[in-house]
Automatic annotation (TrEMBL):
<dbReference type="GO" id="GO:0004815">
    <property type="term" value="F:aspartate-tRNA ligase activity"/>
</dbReference>
<protein>
    <recommendedName>
        <fullName>aspartate--tRNA ligase</fullName>
        <ecNumber>6.1.1.12</ecNumber>
    </recommendedName>
</protein>
<dbReference type="GO" id="GO:0005829">
    <property type="term" value="C:cytosol"/>
</dbReference>
<dbReference type="InterPro" id="IPR002312">
    <property type="entry name" value="Asp/Asn-tRNA-synth_IIb"/>
</dbReference>
<dbReference type="InterPro" id="IPR004364">
    <property type="entry name" value="Aa-tRNA-synt_II"/>
</dbReference>
<keyword id="KW-0067">ATP-binding</keyword>
<dbReference type="GO" id="GO:0003723">
    <property type="term" value="F:RNA binding"/>
</dbReference>
<keyword id="KW-0436">Ligase</keyword>
<feature type="region of interest" description="Disordered">
    <location>
        <begin position="1"/>
        <end position="26"/>
    </location>
</feature>
<dbReference type="GO" id="GO:0017101">
    <property type="term" value="C:aminoacyl-tRNA synthetase multienzyme complex"/>
</dbReference>
<dbReference type="GO" id="GO:0006422">
    <property type="term" value="P:aspartyl-tRNA aminoacylation"/>
</dbReference>
<dbReference type="GO" id="GO:0005524">
    <property type="term" value="F:ATP binding"/>
</dbReference>
<keyword id="KW-0648">Protein biosynthesis</keyword>
<dbReference type="InterPro" id="IPR045864">
    <property type="entry name" value="aa-tRNA-synth_II/BPL/LPL"/>
</dbReference>
<dbReference type="InterPro" id="IPR012340">
    <property type="entry name" value="NA-bd_OB-fold"/>
</dbReference>
<feature type="domain" description="Aminoacyl-transfer RNA synthetases class-II family profile">
    <location>
        <begin position="238"/>
        <end position="535"/>
    </location>
</feature>
<keyword id="KW-0963">Cytoplasm</keyword>
Length: 543
């Protein structure tokens, strides 16, 4: 073949190749034009319903008072809010406005999606479907793409389905016509609230069935506590805790007590010993208060008669147990004694019976939510609290074959065993043990009149664990200084406290209890970190 023929052949191939390339480009342009036309139609459709959904703009979120600041502002301006927990059948066919978190989303098709909205532990199913007026495919797509835990506002009609709704607390459904995202959560969360809310029983049952569900351990929960406390059980725990504090205040106020607030920065240590957080106070040695003990007694010296305090308590002990924290909320009481230190125990008795009755009556839903994840038996207690002397408790232990020092303190195992014995004999898990050996009580504890080896003191137990310590105090200044020295405390560091008794003071006593421990033991949770919002223990100081 001549070179000229070869050139012609190559020229034909190049022409074919170029023609194919042009044809391909034409097809692409044609497809792009069709896509553009479809997009234009879609935009037109979206625009006609765009005011019914979308992200709330930043200007609207700046507490703008103009009702027409944006689509969201206009939509909610004339409506009242309804709590998710208040959505019941009585609201059937009524339009409601709700706010909550995206718990889960479930797209069914291009025309329909479900979103479960959660608010403070309560959940409701919402339906977003194009057969509802004003709902477009684009709106369905927007809802289906919402990230879990995002904050949304939804407006829709309450409907009551024929069949029970599984997986939500509320047995109604919202047919959504408007939905706005107030705040987006990140697409991937460190822990899923759904995983954190599972009980051990659910996880074990899944394993038996061949499925493996995520288990969120304690440290992970505490590292991402802001997510963990969103679970229904945790919402219940801290609402129960709130009720404990409320009852504590209300009961004591009704009994003529005055609430006080004592300093947490003090010179020396409030109870002696080395387990204090030391600090420099403008060049002077100081520490965080282990207790409001000294100052609440001084309030009695100041003629308040009966006082109480709710405040932080700091303990620097290296206690790596299920019931100890380095910082907890103390519920403290101090009161004048007229005749006998049993008057203090009378207050404990009536206060806590009132508290338990109120929790069982007013916190049923919260207790149910806690029990669903952390099953427990209701606390057994009597209308009149059982009282045993320390010697009687020691004898019960000895009769059961447990040897204990009659003048020493009870260790954890002995306390649990005694709790078991008391439950078997008296059918109660709440009782008072009094007349403790003097050697195991603080320096300000009054000795017994009939035996100086024992003291006018008491501990209170729930489910076999100590929860309250109380006593009559030494109010004679010379004897108080003597007791302090005997316990190794430098009297100079508590001179203001001792001197306050030189000006005249009535006999008095009191007690202290940890708020977190009350809730832990009432709900049998097994670990005090579950009842501390942001726990502080020897290994944790964040978040």
């Amino acid at each position: 073949m001549s070179s000229e023929s070869e050139e012609q052949q190559l020229s034909k191939k190049a022409a074919k190749k170029e023609a194919a390339k042009l044809e391909k480009m034409r097809r692409r342009q044609e497809a792009a034009a069709l896509a553009s036309a479809a997009s234009s139609l879609s935009v037109e459709e979206e625009d006609s319903y765009s005011s019914n959904y979308g992200d709330v703009t930043l200007p609207e979120l700046k507490s703008c008072s103009k009702p027409d600041a944006g689509n969201w502002s206009i939509a909610i301006s004339s409506m009242d809010w309804t709590r998710v927990g208040a959505l019941t059948e009585e609201l059937k066919e009524k339009e409601v406005l709700i706010r909550g978190r995206v718990h889960t989303t479930r797209p069914v098709s291009k025309n329909m999606a479900f979103v479960v909205v959660r608010e403070r532990g309560f959940t409701v199913q919402c339906l977003v479907a194009t057969h509802e007026a004003g709902v477009s495919r684009q709106m369905v797509k927007f809802v289906a793409a919402l990230n879990r835990e995002s904050i949304i506002d939804a407006i829709g009609m309450v409907s009551v389905p024929g069949n029970p709704i599984k997986g939500t607390t509320q047995q109604v459904e919202i047919h959504v016509r408007k939905l706005y995202c107030v705040n987006k959560a990140m697409p991937t969360l460190p822990i899923n609230v759904e995983d954190a809310a599972r009980s051990d029983a659910e996880i074990e049952a899944a394993l038996q069935a061949g499925d493996k569900l995520p288990r969120v351990n304690q440290d992970t929960r505490l590292n991402f506590r802001v997510l963990d406390i969103r679970t229904p059980a945790n919402q219940g725990i801290f609402r129960i805790q709130c009720q404990v504090g409320t009852i504590f205040r209300q009961f004591l106020l009704s009994e003529g007590f005055v609430e006080i607030h004592t300093p947490k920065l003090i010179a020396g240590s409030s109870e002696g010993g080395s387990a204090v957080f030391k600090l420099d106070y403008k060049g002077q040695p100081a520490c965080l208060a282990q207790s409001p003990q000294l100052h609440k007694q001084m309030a009695i010296c100041g003629d308040f008669g009966r006082v109480f305090e709710v405040g932080p308590v700091f303990r620097a002990e290296d206690s790596y147990t299920h019931r100890h924290l380095c910082e907890f909320t103390g519920l403290d009481v101090e009161m004048e004694i007229k005749k006998h230190y049993s008057e203090v125990m009378d207050i404990v008795d009536r206060l806590f019976v009132t508290m338990f009755d109120s929790l069982n009556e007013k916190c049923r839903k919260e207790l149910e939510a806690v029990g669903k994840q952390y099953p427990f038996e209701p606390l057994k207690y009597k209308p009149k609290t059982l009282r045993l002397t320390f010697e009687e408790g020691v004898q019960m232990l000895r009769d059961a074959g447990v040897e204990v020092d009659p003048l020493g303190d009870l260790n954890t195992e002995a306390e649990r065993k005694l709790g078991q014995l008391v439950l078997e004999k008296y059918d109660t898990e709440f009782y008072i043990l009094h007349r403790y050996p003097l050697a195991v009580r603080p320096f300000y504890t009054m000795p017994c009149y009939d035996n100086a080896l024992y003291s006018n003191s008491f501990d209170v137990f729930i489910r076999g664990e100590e929860i309250i310590s109380g006593a009559q105090r030494v109010h004679v200044p010379e004897f108080l200084a003597e007791r302090a020295q005997a316990c190794g405390i430098d009297v100079n560091t508590i001179s203001t406290y001792v001197d306050s008794f030189r000006y005249g003071v009535p006999p008095h006593g009191g007690f202290g209890v940890g708020l977190e421990r009350v809730v832990m033991l009432f709900c049998a949770l097994g670990n005090i970190r579950k009842t501390s919002l942001y726990p502080r223990d020897p290994q944790r100081i964040a978040p």
